[in-house]
Amino acid sequence: MHNSTEFRIGNYRPIYLWAGPGTIRMNKVKFMQVAVDEKVHIDAHKPESAELVVNKLYQNWIHLTYSWGFPPEIEIEDWNSFEAATREYHKLGAKVFAYIQSSNCVYSGSFMQKDWYALTPQGKKIYYYSDRYMTCFQHQEWLDYLRERVADAINRGADGIFFDNMWYGLQPNSLYKTWLGGAGCYCPTCQAKYSDEMGKSIPVFTDLKRKEVLEYIDWRASKMTEVINQLTMYARSIKPDVVISANDYDPIMRPAKLIFGIDFPALARIQDITMIENFALPKWETQPERLLVNNAVTVRNTQPLLPPKKHLSVLSYDIGIGFDPVYPPHRILTGMAEAAALGCSMTTKGTEYHDGEKMTLLTAPEYTEQQQAIGNFHRWLEENQWIYQTQSERCAKIAILYPGDLLWQQWHKIAPVYFAVQQTFLVNGIPWKVITSMEKAKPDDQIIIFNEKEIHHAHNNKIINGMNLSLADTFSESFFERNPSLKRPLASISEQLIRGYHGNKVMRRFMDWLGMAKLITHTPFFKVPDVSFQQELLGKLNLESFFRVISQHPVLIDVWKTEQDKFHIHLVNYSSQKQPILLKSPLPQKYTLLSPDEIPQDLQARTDVQMEIDLYNILTTIEKENK
Description:
The chain is of the alpha/beta class. It contains 20 helices and 28 strands. Strands 14-13-10-9-6-3-2-1-15 form a nine-stranded parallel beta sheet.
């Protein structure tokens, strides 16, 4: 495993840069012959673009396309392009991740003769977008093929291996607050293995009230972890210092263990650097409803699940791959600032944009403003590493006890309240932290729980049961949960719609026109809760004992204690416009104000500090010369 000092804010500056001939080909497969700017995709593997990425955007870990899952007689072109591009980026001192698609492949050429595909209970192959099918993680020939790709990528110069889409077979769908369909793979190999190890048949329907279904979901996730661990050990046997990373897809804002088979804490222990891909690029909207899209909830819930000193990176979309144009500079910078404030890095999204006419990359010449903004912010983070390196722990007087497996097991009941509580704190400028056990609470923490059994483990802390808040009473059991005989026909309709979307060009275009992709990619939990709920929750807490920010529009506040027992207070403006804010402190504090756009300035000791915020302010009592 790698020392965490290589992966920290300012030092670690990664970029997704899927390009080259394979990405051109994949875009056309994935989006049914969409137009692609082929020149910009080819140029991304050439010296001029490498110079731009490394020296202008100031990225130093480059995620390059190695294997999208095309059959080898086609994909050899991509492997050669990866090798040539890796040489160019190495010349400039950057390191390279080799992208390996791990859970699916393109159904063409020699792959049409393979029997390694995951199957539904009815024996059907499982779509992954168009002309691709999910593969089986218990099929030895597929595992051997992944090992070949790992070895070849390393031999062609990869410094790291990046496993994408660690998804185990069929994914259950949530509709009308009920889970539909099966989960995982029902091929003969999986059926036999599950029978041998568990003495049971794989459940064909995802009914979370049944113990055998919960046991199977745990088994499926453990097998996914086992596969990634085996591939990781194999990679390290070839290159001991290889860096392992993966797409730990949205493990907080959706029940990833249930849907995909992703056991994030277990997978994080294997990886050298974790990366969460999600749909949480910061955005504040007041019309037609109040919506605060953010990574604060994801990061604060994720970091306590990581091994000590393990660094986290996030990569966030808006609508999703193939739908988003290149984001405006300020929106990109808000994401970068939010990540830094929360103690993690942001992986730059350099690829899979659609400009309204064609698929394009961030490296295209029309995006000079975005390129310069990203590079400037990266340099500021590097120059000010001392801010983040001296931080030892997140500080807050409000602690939310993470519900663990209970969250995914009772998702439709707990998740709406769990995330509404955190959205309330965020929109009101109140710091909070997430803890994984009562033992991790401080003596004066106010703890919010979502499982009444945890009350018996409390000490002298003030305890609030989130499930006793009025919002919890509004989420009654689904009509389909009360009438389970109707779930199978509903599941059949849902499956046909999904298969039609992936297999029929007319249906795809019609459903995209209706905006139905958002039903899959977006979460309802970024909505700002009603004022009545906010007042109910905040009325139960003492908010005068710690820092808080008062503002017209939401401002992230994250407070970190340093090794010298001082505070760093990070403030990020979610509004696209500069605004005045008031920072409230329990005691008078003397600060140094730091910002990417301003020279440092000292502020007089006081409890209330008024200031303006454009993008990102940091208040610290540590003088720079004492770093």
